[in-house]
Amino acid sequence: MASWSEFAADVPRLAEGIRRLLQQYGPGLGYLATVRADGGPRVHPVSPVLTDEGLFCFVIDSPKRRDLERDGRYALHSFPAEECDDEAYLAGHARPVTDPTWVTRLAHQHRASSGTDWRLFEFTIDIAMIARRDAASPARPAVHVWLEPGAPTASERLGRVRGASRTSAVGQRAEAA
């Protein structure tokens, strides 16, 4: 799980492209997907906060916040652009920010209301993707994907869900094919 700053240091052009798409209307805008208690997806619009130190979100008391507190997995997709169909996607884990200095500083900088029951979460990044479409071939976007070094592969995650090791998860998929 990489922080935004670690991700941006590793692939600065990709990070800048994602930042531009998330902040294309000024403040950050995107759709946050979380995992409901029954395992299904939940999607809500949010205003992510991007700083040089991290990717954050102030989340009010809501089902979305309870999802993040229970199962920190998230996906964040950029808000659609008006002039093109470019898109950005991030996925990873959200964790509550407990350092009062950070919380106070970000709340002040981003005008988070002190009278609202919100919690600040930092989003770490396991996967980042940007897709750019040009007018000449809009059906075939140029896609750039970054996977956090050392992050589990899809088959490893599948194995963990099924309680299997990496080898058996790969073997199960090969046998099923």
Automatic annotation (TrEMBL):
<protein>
    <submittedName>
        <fullName>Pyridoxamine 5'-phosphate oxidase</fullName>
    </submittedName>
</protein>
<dbReference type="InterPro" id="IPR012349">
    <property type="entry name" value="Split_barrel_FMN-bd"/>
</dbReference>
<feature type="region of interest" description="Disordered">
    <location>
        <begin position="158"/>
        <end position="177"/>
    </location>
</feature>
